[in-house]
Amino acid sequence: MSERSQKLEAALRERLNAVHVAVEDESHLHAGHAGAREGGGHFRALIVSERFEGKTRVEAQRVVFDAVATEMNEWIHALSLRTLTPAQWDALS
To answer: How far apart, in whole angstroms, are the C-alpha atoms of residue 78 and residue 12?
Structure first.
């Protein structure tokens, strides 16, 4: 796991009081992409948090983007999200 992936995972876990977070750095797939010439800053995240209870998928994603706004402005170029409540996460098991 890259250093940035670890940093993003820790921020999501802490700021969203998440019970599960998995971050994958997909930057290598985007090398040469406009806006991220070296391919850096592309991530995929699965986040399980009670903060998503009663929210639509878009509302839950806004909660995440608000939580990592500083990182989005500094070093995250793209962030793909899957947001689940603990009950939704348990139902997948």
So the answer is: 15
